[in-house]
Write a structure and sequence with these properties.
single chain; alpha+beta; Rossmann fold; Jelly Rolls; 12-stranded mixed sheet
């Protein structure tokens, strides 16, 4: 039977430092000499172990899945770096674990399907997109790490082992990639089981290997896909996973490749889908060879025709926190249009509902982390960088260092001026939903937004989809003038700053005049004063399929010319509209950067007097002043 981890106790060190040493093992077990201790200063472990002397080893962990259907359980490759003292002194250490599908042999030029279609919905894929996997290679490489790398450089000297794994079906691991489903989750979970003595591991020669040097306490982290895997594994409730730090991570793969029934791309990667990602991570040889049949099934089941939610996507939905035992430190960019903000917001809501210990750090960047030197000053005057905060988080949850991090404000948020501040929670508890009513007095002129009474009249307005040829920037620009390919609604100039925090909801009464279907897009935009040269800034976006007006899982026919009520949320955000600016809503059809692009000419008609934007304003309606 595997011995229990030695219990850590804190003893006073020199100059206020704390040294963590090992308590004696229970009497029934052999007593070993106390190993060298970690050193804690200001609640944070210090680099006292030699990285140069660290032990590095490769282990192949046996999973409980057979993704390539060869009749044998797949094994996943992991590389380990741990302090030498784990071998020479019997020192047991916790583990920081990053699993990834991007370690090696990715297919850099996997062809994308075209987003140009004749009509919506479109049966099957047509052609190839010009955007190739070279761009994807650059995107994925940002999340790639190898031993030696930043995690082991930083954490091994502080008394941790670092494990870098290769996802099932990728790199040196067995099997076929499955793009976010339960098999991928269980393939990752197996590593935590091995670190806790519940799974088998082998060296390159097939000899059994155990992790007797591990305390069994594991923290997972990573960026993008590498951060998604911790979310997935946490939902299993696996014993030993004490905490996760998902950075720019997916929580529902449907929300990554779809939106309210529409096929919607991750920002910058028009045409990418679950099968493209699986081919990329498999590598060309595996994708076109041993895994060709398995990947063809992903192509068929993901359904680029209707965009409906299905069992395929349900198997890749990781928004159920009922079994989560690990604490969660969510990190995300407020301007991430690759892994959009609904991923952190939906996960955060679910964690809150189940009272999972949690913290959140939101920054103004895009896809990635905030930067190690990003600094926040707490209400008590102490300042911490992001990396120090991550360090203290792991110390608290993995080494049991009582550093008070859970007593600090729950939310850290970078404001538009790039300064970081703290909040009790996110969304801001002071946010109140305010209905900004759309209004128009002219069928062609831009309309208005008001929180009070609408102008009299029931004017309807129309526009024609030309999203295939018109970039969204052209549709957002010039909001004070009419544009036949979009509708714009603007508030009066704000008398003071207006902050909203949470999910805007669009409620639009609309008809499709001449086609059975259409894309439907809404942008929330920050406009300068009328007549100014201030460039408009897109604050957030949202998309929906009119055929999915009652359910993401079921398309229903749309009668041409009939007005329907549509509701959908825009991507969550926390944003301050400055005094003197105007809040704008722009409504159009196809989005050249995100949606499938049908031939132009679809005519749409909106009833503004039956439409509104629901905005979660901090301080409520009184703050608006209009």
């Amino acid at each position: 039977m595997r011995r229990r981890p030695l219990l850590a106790v804190l003893t006073a060190g020199i100059s206020g430092a704390l040294v963590v040493s090992a308590a004696p093992a229970p009497a029934a077990e052999p007593v070993v000499a106390a190993p060298p201790g970690i050193v804690v200063v200001d609640g944070m472990t210090q680099p006292v172990f030699s990285l140069a002397d660290a032990i590095e080893e490769r282990v192949y962990v046996q999973t409980t899945v057979d993704t390539d259907r060869d009749g044998r359980f797949d094994r996943v490759a992991i590389d380990i770096s741990r302090p030498r003292e784990t071998a020479t002194e019997g020192f047991k250490v916790p583990v920081i674990f990053e699993h990834s599908p991007y370690r090696k042999d990715v297919w850099g030029d996997v062809p994308y399907p075209s987003v140009l279609v004749d009509d919506l919905p479109q049966n099957g894929l047509t052609g190839r997109a010009d955007r190739r996997g070279a761009d994807m290679t650059a995107q994925r490489a940002a999340a790639k790490a190898n031993l030696p790398g930043s995690l082991d450089d930083y954490y091994v000297p502080r008394g941790y082992a670092v494990v870098l794994g290769q996802s099932v079906g990728t790199g040196d691991s067995d099997g076929c990639p499955t793009s976010g489903d339960q098999a991928e989750t269980l393939g990752t979970k197996a590593v935590i089981d091995w670190l806790n003595g519940r799974a088998k591991g082998y060296d390159a020669d097939g000899a059994p290997v155990t992790a007797g040097w591990s305390t069994g306490a594991v923290g997972m982290t990573g960026v993008s896909y590498n951060g998604t895997l911790p979310n997935q594994v946490a939902t299993t409730g696996v014993e030993g996973l004490k905490t996760i730090v998902p950075v720019a991570a997916i929580s529902s793969w449907y929300d990554y490749y779809r939106a309210n029934g529409l096929v919607v791309a991750p920002g910058g990667y028009q045409g990418e889908d679950a099968d493209i990602l699986a081919q990329f991570t498999a590598g060309q040889a595996r994708a076109e060879g041993a895994c060709a049949d398995e990947l063809a099934e992903i192509t068929a089941e993901q359904d680029r025709v209707t965009g409906d939610y299905s069992k395929f996507w349900g198997d890749r939905d990781h928004l159920d926190a009922r079994k989560v035992k690990a604490s969660v430190f969510v990190v995300h960019g407020l301007n991430d249009w690759n892994v959009k903000t609904e991923h952190f917001a939906g996960w955060w809501d679910e964690l809150a509902q189940h009272r999972v210990p949690r913290k959140i750090w939101l920054h103004q960047g895009g896809h990635g982390g905030p930067g190690n030197n990003a600094t926040v000053t707490l209400p008590d005057g102490r300042s911490w960088t992001y990396k120090q905060t991550e360090n203290r988080w792991f110390d608290f949850w993995l080494w049991n260092v009582r550093n008070g991090i859970m007593d600090e404000p729950t939310a850290v948020l970078q404001r538009e001026d790039r300064a970081y501040t703290t909040y009790a929670n996110w969304p801001d508890p002071g946010a109140r939903e305010v209905a900004l009513k759309l209004a128009a007095t002219d069928a062609d002129a831009p309309g208005t937004l008001t929180s009070g009474k609408r102008p009299k009249g029931k004017v309807e307005q129309s526009f024609v989809d030309e999203g295939r040829t018109l970039h969204p920037s052209a549709l957002v620009a010039g909001a004070d003038a009419a544009n036949p390919h979009r509708l714009a609604y603007l508030s009066p100039e704000l008398t003071g700053d207006v902050r909203f925090s949470g999910r805007p909801e669009m409620r639009l009464r609309m008809a499709i005049e001449n086609k059975p279907g259409a894309n439907l897009t809404a942008y929330l935009v920050d406009y300068g004063p009328a007549g100014s040269t201030t460039a408009p800034k897109v604050v957030t976006r949202g998309w929906t399929d009119p055929q999915n007006r009652t359910s993401d899982a079921r398309s229903a026919p749309v009668r041409q010319g009939k007005l329907y009520d549509y509701r959908w949320t825009l991507e969550p955000k926390d944003y301050v509209f400055p005094a003197g600016h105007r809040i704008g809503v722009v409504v159009f059809s196809s989005d050249q950067e995100y949606t499938l692009l049908p031939l132009g000419g679809t005519e749409l008609r909106v009833a503004p007097h039956r439409s509104e934007l629901r905005l979660p304003v901090v301080g409520g309606r009184d703050v608006l002043g209009f």
